[in-house]
Structures are given as C-alpha cells and as structure tokens.
Amino acid sequence: MDSIDKDHDLFIDDKGKYADPQRAIKYLTESIELLPGSAKGYALRGFTYSDLGQYRQAIEDYSQAIRLKPDYDFAYDGRGKAYTKVGQYQSAVEDFTELIRLKFDEAEAFYSRGRAYHYLEEYQLAIEDYDEAIRLKPDYADAYMCRGMDYFKQGNMELCYRDAQKAYELGNCTLLDLLKEADIDGD
Questions:
Q1: Any idea of the CA torsion for 17, 20, 24, 27, to the nearest 10 degrees?
Q2: Which of 67, 165, 176, 186 sits at 20 to 30 Å (Cα–Cα) from 11?
Q3: Which of 88, 116, 132 is the last residue of a domain?
Q4: How far apart are CA 105 and CA 135, in angstroms?
Q5: Contact in structure between 120 and 137 (CB atoms under 8 Å)
Q6: pLDDT tens-digit map of 29-74
Q7: What is the span of the domain harbouring residue 11?
Q8: Which CATH number does the domain housing residue 148 bear?
C-alpha cells in the first residue's frame, strides 16, 4: 500500500469529497513527486481539480493517470465528466465508450454517454443510451428525466410525458415541473 492509499482518506468528508481541496491538491502533488508512476495520485488530484471546477487541470491529470494505467476506469469516468463540463462532448463520448467497454458502473456510464450525445444533439443515440441505463438500473430517475427531454427534442410528447411522470415517481420532478410550467400535458 503506497502513501496515497494510506493517507488520502484523512481528507475525505462525509460526502466523499475532500474537506479542504487546496490542502488535498498540495498533498497529492507531493505524493506524485515522491511516486511519479502512481496513476492513482494523478486520478485523485484530477478528481479534486474537478471538484474545484478546474476542469482543464483535471483533464491533464486524468490523462496522465490513463497513460500510466490504460485500463483505469476511475480516470476515464472523471475525464469524461470533465470533458462534458468544458464542452468537449465527442471526447466525452469516447471516454464513456471506453468506460462501458471496461464494464465500470455500466448504468452510470451509459447515462453519462447519453448526456454527451444530448449535447451533440444526437438525440436518438442519447435515448438508446438512456434505455440501456434504465435496463441496467430500472429506478434511475435521472435517466428517465433525460430520456424524456430528448423525446421532447424529437417532438414525441407522449413518450416525453411518460418519462417525466416516471422520473417524478422516482423522485426527480424537474421535467414534469417544466412541462407543467409550460402548460404542456401528455395528451
């Protein structure tokens, strides 16, 4: 067990985030200097940069983690999410596709790739990924909500409203509230 594995939990709060991200970055940078071949050090620092909204730095660190460990699912997940945040949606699709190949939290990976397809305005591909996310995790409220939004983009109000209702039943009322606010019903 290296220093990163042993000590990094000291900084984690009850939400799985670093309680003091700046201190964590300093610590992780020192750990990387001591263990420059540690993919985990780069990935954890990338995670921390993402929490701070410093997505370009996060992408650099996740990329280095992947160079060091080409099958590092955590790094692909983080980098894909960071790519999405900076509007590099095709790169995000590629990372989430690799994540699916690696079989890492497949429902989340399909959902995340669906979001990237949504931003690329590839609504049918997004819907297919949400379908798969829902198949893998039938109570995935956010996937229902996003699929409903893409049905709306395609003009399919019946399926949009159906998914909005299901998302609502599962605890995500965002789409249903938007439809009601716009005075759009499922009929």
A1: -150
A2: 67
A3: 88
A4: 13
A5: no
A6: 999 999 999 999 999 999 999 999 999 999 999 999 999 999 999 9
A7: 1-88
A8: 1.25.40.10
